[in-house]
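Priority: medium. Attachment 1 of 2:
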């Protein structure tokens, strides 16, 4: 049986896929950390669909969260048996969505999906319901056609991707024993307008908070105080020079290709002009190439900070707001990357290239455990925005990409 029959079958599901999007949209799965109840209702609905479609197994791996509905954050694993259990072709999507934000900026109700001009408008329709639905219907097509895929197929549908994955993939990797080094793992959650980019690597992320404590005084008598603002400025200058001079490597996989070190947020210090601030707080955002070790960089930052403390007779505390050493990258020629390349080319006619990104993705959890994972997607990049929408054609074609990987890995 050829791929054309699979593609035609998936195309025939378009209306069902749209209806499933509407049902998912009506069950907002917002993390308790963002003011919601979690994914319980959404997971219950998804389980009914998976059971109806006849997966060979469906198991739930709950993470306890007392702030969530019924005290749990559900994670689902559905499997379809293939000709060999030597490895599994995985599609990993997430149920949770971000809050809608300013409702006045929406043209429609974010939780009532509206279909218009080939698009589905609503919160979560792209991130990540487009590919959650696509993965389910890719398997349905294979099953309905009676195709026995060469290897097992797995869907991992997780919680908590938007707020750190503690109750999602991080939890699942601890309690589910079924992932193997030989598996092909696709995380369809890296939106690009033409679907030409495959994410295989990430930079390390280090966010630091500096609190400089000097001595408050009247601005007309600066000798009686220690200006924390001035000391912060000196420290920022010295750190900026040290970091950019000390870590110059470049990697063309990333854009930008170098590590970035940016002083960003600064908290208010004094409310009036004529007071010397006795405390000043600023933050630093560092996105570091995987070739460098964050602990070593942080050690040098501490050394420079201690020198500034002595020079200006102040105290400076440094808090690690985020400290995430990059996971090992997925090789450019990993089986999952090669399989995805062929599938995207066959469905979309697009030549893909591998890239690294400055932000973090949930694939890092797989990579840290030694599993190769590729991150990919095709959308108009409306995720997290008001009037988020999914292009229906993309949803259907993404299902074809996934089915291709399942049938012709």
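Attachment 2 of 2:
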């Amino acid at each position: 049986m050829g791929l054309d029959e699979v593609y035609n079958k998936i195309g025939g599901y378009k209306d069902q896929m749209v209806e499933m999007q509407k049902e998912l949209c009506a069950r907002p799965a917002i993390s308790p950390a963002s003011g919601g109840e979690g994914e319980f209702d959404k997971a219950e609905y998804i389980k009914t669909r998976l059971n109806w479609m006849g997966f060979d197994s469906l198991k739930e791996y709950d993470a306890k969260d007392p702030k969530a509905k019924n005290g749990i954050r559900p994670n689902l694993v559905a499997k379809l048996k293939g000709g060999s259990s030597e490895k599994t072709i995985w599609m990993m999507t997430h149920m949770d969505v971000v809050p809608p934000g300013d409702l006045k900026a929406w043209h429609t109700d974010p939780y009532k999906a509206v279909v218009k001009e080939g698009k589905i408008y609503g919160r979560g329709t792209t991130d990540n319901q487009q590919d959650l639905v696509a993965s389910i219907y890719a398997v349905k097509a294979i099953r309905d056609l009676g195709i026995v895929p060469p290897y097992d197929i797995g869907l991992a549908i997780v919680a908590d991707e938007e707020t750190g994955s503690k109750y999602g993939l991080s939890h699942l990797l601890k309690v589910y024993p079924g992932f193997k080094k030989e598996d092909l793992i696709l995380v369809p959650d890296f939106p690009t307008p033409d679907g030409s980019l495959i994410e295989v690597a990430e930079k390390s992320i280090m966010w630091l908070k500096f609190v400089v404590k000097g001595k408050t005084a009247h601005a007309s008598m600066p000798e009686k105080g220690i200006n924390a603002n001035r000391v912060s400025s000196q420290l920022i200058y010295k750190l900026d020079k040290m970091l950019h001079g000390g870590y110059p490597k470049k990697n063309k996989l990333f854009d930008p290709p170098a590590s970035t070190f940016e002083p960003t947020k600064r908290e208010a210090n004094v409310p009036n002009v004529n007071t010397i601030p006795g405390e000043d707080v600023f933050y630093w955002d560092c996105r570091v190439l995987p070739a460098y070790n964050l602990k070593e960089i942080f050690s040098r930052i501490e050394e420079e900070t201690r020198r500034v403390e002595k020079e200006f007779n102040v105290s400076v505390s440094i808090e690690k707001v985020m400290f995430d050493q990059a996971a090992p990258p997925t090789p450019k020629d990993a089986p999952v990357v090669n399989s995805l390349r062929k599938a995207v080319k066959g469905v979309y006619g697009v030549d893909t290239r591998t890239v690294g990104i400055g932000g973090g993705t949930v694939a890092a959890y797989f990579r840290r455990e030694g599993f190769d994972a590729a991150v990919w997607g095709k959308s108009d990049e409306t995720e997290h925005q008001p009037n988020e929408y999914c292009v229906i054609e993309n949803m259907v074609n993404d299902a074809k990409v996934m089915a291709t990987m399942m049938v012709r890995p």
